[in-house]
Design a protein that fits this description.
The protein is an all-alpha fold. The chain has two domains: 263 residues, no CATH class; 99 residues. Helix content is 65%, strand content 1%. It has a two-stranded antiparallel sheet with strand order 1-2. The longest helix has 35 residues. The chain binds zinc ion (2 copies). One zinc ion binds next to α10.
């Protein structure tokens, strides 16, 4: 790394606190047993600061995937500032560049320059002046302007406040500094950076095989739900990253709860039919690509089968969407007989889609035995 390109302020801050923790934490644990109060405060602050980054900096400011009440916005900003991740302007600008140029050189944290570049080293490099053209919707927000101007000072200030508060409540200032401040900042930093590194490395490329971004349940646990990163890169405006009900995504649950309390609104969701169609078209492209190199006798038959099943699935998914919309409309008009008929047609179509989907999966397995399915180039 060229010394001229080093962002000294960020580098010194991150390296210094890592070194201090490395020495101080073992020493602290040898000589102290932290009280439950201190441990719980550290966990609560970790969750509050982590969720404020994912729900605030990421899904609200960077992607505008929902609107939020001003008081909630202030809280999100307060705790996100406590995470020492710079201002919203800097964060959102870089993140939008990451989405626009993902996996290219202009992507500030492209994983193609290596795992550790994406994880932490990008943070140590000078990135030039703030590109205001990337954040035209945020640049006139007075609260954000103030935060940007005093970002470092404010981060220290809110952490000192947290330190004094936790230290005073539990009468343990050393424990507050070690766990609720030091260790908590370390964990939230690395959990967030994992989204740029590990979430572009290990997992399933469900919706786009060409992106490095992956869906990974285990990462979702550490990243407050941001582990479904392949979905997020394809459908970035969706307020959810884990779209299925069983996907672990506490950030989406927080936003949803806020909306039910009347504190958030305009939650953007991508139609599940659109995402299903995307799955089929992505698989179709991969299957046909793989079959190009196959010399097997039934190559043509397999290619035809891929086209036939994917066309049929596409058609049935559109049909299902139309029926569901129609059903919702007739339900409003209280036309019982019509809505009952529609319900049974929806049931039939769903079972056809399920059967076709099983055939599709079988076909995928058959093709993968003949040729490798390239998931990422
Ligand atoms: Zn990404
Ligand atoms: Zn994003």
């Amino acid at each position: 790394m060229d010394l001229k390109n080093i962002e000294w302020k960020a580098t010194l801050f991150v390296c210094t606190y890592h070194l201090i923790l490395l020495v101080f934490l073992p020493f602290y644990f040898i000589n102290n047993t932290p009280s439950w109060g201190i441990v719980m405060s550290a966990i609560i602050l970790m969750v509050l600061t982590g969720l404020s980054i994912t729900a605030g900096y990421h899904r609200f400011y960077s992607h505008k995937s929902y609107s939020v009440n001003k008081v909630v916005e202030f809280f999100l900003l307060f705790f996100a500032t406590m995470s020492f991740m710079g201002s919203v302007f800097e964060w959102a600008s870089k993140h939008r560049l990451h989405h626009r140029f993902v996996d290219k050189d202009q992507d500030p944290y492209t994983v193609n320059k290596g795992f550790f570049h994406a994880h932490i080293f990008w943070f140590f490099q000078k990135s030039g002046p703030l590109d205001k053209s990337t954040i035209p919707d945020l640049i006139n927000n007075k609260l954000l302007k103030f935060q940007h101007k005093h970002a470092s000072f404010l981060s220290f200030l809110v952490n000192i406040m947290a330190f004094l508060f936790v230290g005073y409540i539990f009468n343990d200032y050393v424990g507050a500094l070690a766990l609720a401040i030091g260790l908590r900042i370390f964990l939230v930093h690395h959990f967030t950076w994992f989204i740029n590194s590990a979430a572009h490395y290990w997992g399933e490329r469900t919706y786009s095989k060409e992106l490095t971004a992956v869906d990974n349940f285990f990462l979702a646990i550490f990243t407050f739900g941001e582990g479904y990163h392949n979905y997020h890169h394809v459908f970035a405006s969706d307020y959810r990253n884990g779209v299925r009900w069983y996907h672990y995504d506490p950030t989406k649950w927080l936003i949803w709860t806020l909306s039910k309390l009347g504190l958030a609104s305009d939650l953007v969701t991508i139609d599940s039919y659109i995402s299903k169609k995307r799955l089929v078209s992505e698989d179709r492209r991969v299957f046909l690509n793989a079959l190009q190199d196959v010399t097997s006798l039934n190559k043509q038959a397999l290619q035809d089968k891929v086209k036939k099943i994917s066309d049929k699935l596409d058609e049935k998914i559109i049909n299902l969407k139309r029926l569901v919309n129609e059903y919702k409309e007739t339900k409003k008009k209280i036309s019982r007989i019509k809505s009952r008929q529609l319900k049974s047609r929806i049931k039939q179509t769903k079972s056809v889609v399920r059967e076709e989907w099983n055939d599709w999966l079988k076909l995928g397995k058959e093709i993968s035995k003949l040729a490798p399915l390239h998931t990422y180039h």
